[in-house]
Specification:
The relative contact order is 0.19. The longest helix has 23 residues, at about 5-25. The protein is elongated, with a radius of gyration of 12 Å. The two termini are about 20 Å apart. The protein has two helices and no strands. Helix content is about 75%, strand content about 0%. It is mainly α and about 55 residues long.
Length: about 55
């Protein structure tokens, strides 16, 4: 796995965790921000052929 892929997958994991935490604490604004970031990261992964299906169960 190259550095780009590893870094992207790590960012996706961190963003998913942040999104979960925002939802659990009821911070709707932060949840929206984290969801947008996650959507962007998933789009970037798709554009570069990075498989994220195991991370996004």
């Amino acid at each position: 796995m190259d550095a780009f892929t590893a870094g992207l997958l790590q960012r996706i994991r961190a963003t998913q965790s942040d999104l979960t935490r925002a939802r659990e604490t009821g911070d709707d604004f932060l949840a929206d921000v984290e969801q947008a970031e996650l959507d962007d990261l998933r789009r970037l992964a798709e554009e570069h052929g990075v498989k994220v299906s195991l991370l996004t169960a």
